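User: Quick sanity check before I run a bigger batch. Here is a single chain. Can you write out its predicted 3D structure?
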Amino acid sequence: MPQSLGVCTVGAGMFVRVKTLRAGGRTYRYLHIVENRWENGKTRQHIVGSLGRLDELLAKGDLERVILQMAAHCPTVRVVGATGGRPPSPAPPG
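Assistant: Done. Predicted structure follows.
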């Protein structure tokens, strides 16, 4: 049964959610971008996209890259933190 382990607000109505699935005696955590929508006078949550399994994103370094690329498109966000000895990826022009 899916359970929410964490929520990180991305913007008004959109946020990041970690969902846990248990199957075959194993536990998998998936990272989703979720949007709140009003439908029939009630708030409904819609998965905009899935970034994949959290353990795989972390192992490949993909999660850090995605966060830095998303932050590069938002002038009010500044990412501060350890980069594992690597310089952060430069922001794309524009």
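The chain has one domain: 3-72.

User: Great, the batch can go ahead then.
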